[in-house]
Structures are given as structure tokens and as C-alpha cells.
């Protein structure tokens, strides 16, 4: 059965009482603020460091478009990963474990996220990333490739080493596609991709 949503008779669906809505910050009610995307909220609260700091971290992980009041159950897995990362960036963590953080991201946002990863590494942090994105794989210091197939047909380490070593490996399934990516080829149209298809897509990372 589909989820049924019925607006609250007391708040009209805003989620806030009349008393809460009577309070305004920077000329906006809490309901108004909840509809703002992060990038707009940063402009509105740039003078308040307590508010701006977490918003800047959300922007830095590629969530500038997200509305402040957006429900968590509407987020993709990648968005939830980046939201948690934004929260962790405000703490003194030394190691970050991320599961497909590029999921749903535009290529420009992936570039931005990789820049953030570089900053974390340069500051002495460690990143463990589970990822299929070839751009991310190409930037790794060390790669562990699982396979040879998906699900029950996988689960074995078929390669471990640097990206350069992966390019030379005869065991790696991802290696030929990484080579094509680095050479600017349309690797999705390659004969090997068409022959291997879904198996390859689910084994790298």
C-alpha cells in the first residue's frame, strides 16, 4: 500500500505551531528557512558562524542544492553518505569510511568531492572508499578489487595495488576500463564491456 499523507489540521502541514511561526530570523520564519537550499541559506546566514559553519561543510561535500527541511527518507544512499561526512568534518576524526559517495552526483560535483578528499588526506586523514566510479578509482593510493562476479559469484580479492599496477594486472577486471578512462576512451562501448556487461559493473571497488 502506498504511503498516505494527510496535512495536520493544527499546523496546516508546516510542522510548526503558530507560536514558532511568529518568530522570524533574518525576516524569515522557520518554515521559510526549511525550504531554503543550502546555498541560499549560506547567503542569508553568512554573518552567523554557528549557522554558516555546518552549511559550509554541506556545500563542500556537494550538497549545496539540498533543502534544509528535506526529509532524510527522501535522500539517496550517496546523499546520506555525504551528509554524514559533512557532520564528521566538524569533529576530530582520523579515518572516514564511505560507501559509494558519488552516487547521484554530477561530474562537476564529483570533481568537487575529490578536491575535498585531497584536503582531508593532506591534513593527515585516512579515507576508505567503496566505489565503482573510475574517476575516484584513478585517484586512489591503493585499490582492493573484489570479484570476479556479483553477489554469490564474487567475494574474493582479485587484485590489490596502486592504479598503475592495476593497469598492468592480468587478473583485474577493472583494469582495462580504467585504462580506457585514463586514455579518454568511451569504455562503455568497448567490446570487453559489452561482453562482460553487468558482471563488470558490480565487481570493481
UniProtKB/TrEMBL annotation:
Gene3D superfamilies: ABC transporter ATPase like domain, P-loop containing nucleotide triphosphate hydrolases. Residues 46-103 form the ABC transporter domain. It is found in: Cytoplasm. It comes from the Bacteria. GO terms for molecular function: ATP binding; ATP hydrolysis activity; DNA binding; nuclease activity. SUPFAM superfamilies: P-loop containing nucleoside triphosphate hydrolases. Keywords: ATP-binding, Cytoplasm, DNA damage, DNA excision, DNA repair, DNA-binding, Excision nuclease, Nucleotide-binding, Repeat. One of its GO terms (biological process) is DNA repair. InterPro entries: ABC_transporter-like_ATP-bd (IPR003439), P-loop_NTPase (IPR027417). One of its GO terms (cellular component) is cytoplasm. Belongs to the ABC transporter superfamily. UvrA family. This is UvrABC system protein A. It comes from Paracoccus suum.
Amino acid at each position: 500500500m502506498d504511503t498516505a499523507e494527510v496535512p495536520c489540521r493544527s499546523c496546516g502541514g508546516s510542522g510548526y505551531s503558530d507560536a514558532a511561526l511568529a518568530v522570524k530570523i533574518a525576516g524569515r520564519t522557520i518554515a521559510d528557512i526549511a525550504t531554503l537550499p543550502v546555498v541560499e541559506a549560506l547567503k542569508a546566514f553568512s554573518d552567523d558562524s554557528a549557522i554558516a559553519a555546518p552549511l559550509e561543510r554541506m556545500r563542500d561535500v556537494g550538497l549545496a542544492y539540498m533543502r534544509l527541511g528535506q526529509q532524510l527518507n527522501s535522500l539517496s544512499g550517496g546523499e546520506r553518505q555525504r551528509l554524514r561526512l559533512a557532520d564528521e568534518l566538524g569533529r576530530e576524526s582520523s579515518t572516514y569510511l564511505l560507501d559509494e559517495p558519488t552516487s547521484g552526483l554530477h561530474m562537476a560535483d564529483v570533481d568537487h568531492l575529490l578536491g575535498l578528499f585531497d584536503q582531508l588526506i593532506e591534513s593527515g586523514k585516512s579515507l576508505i572508499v567503496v566505489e565503482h566510479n573510475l574517476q575516484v578509482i584513478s585517484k586512489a593510493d591503493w585499490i582492493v578489487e573484489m570479484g570476479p562476479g556479483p553477489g554469490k559469484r564474487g567475494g574474493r580479492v582479485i587484485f590489490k595495488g596502486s592504479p598503475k599496477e592495476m593497469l598492468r594486472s592480468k587478473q583485474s577486471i577493472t583494469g582495462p576500463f580504467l585504462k580506457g578512462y585514463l586514455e579518454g576512451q568511451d569504455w562503455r562501448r568497448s567490446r570487453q564491456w559489452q561482453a562482460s556487461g553487468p558482471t563488470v559493473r558490480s565487481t570493481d571497488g
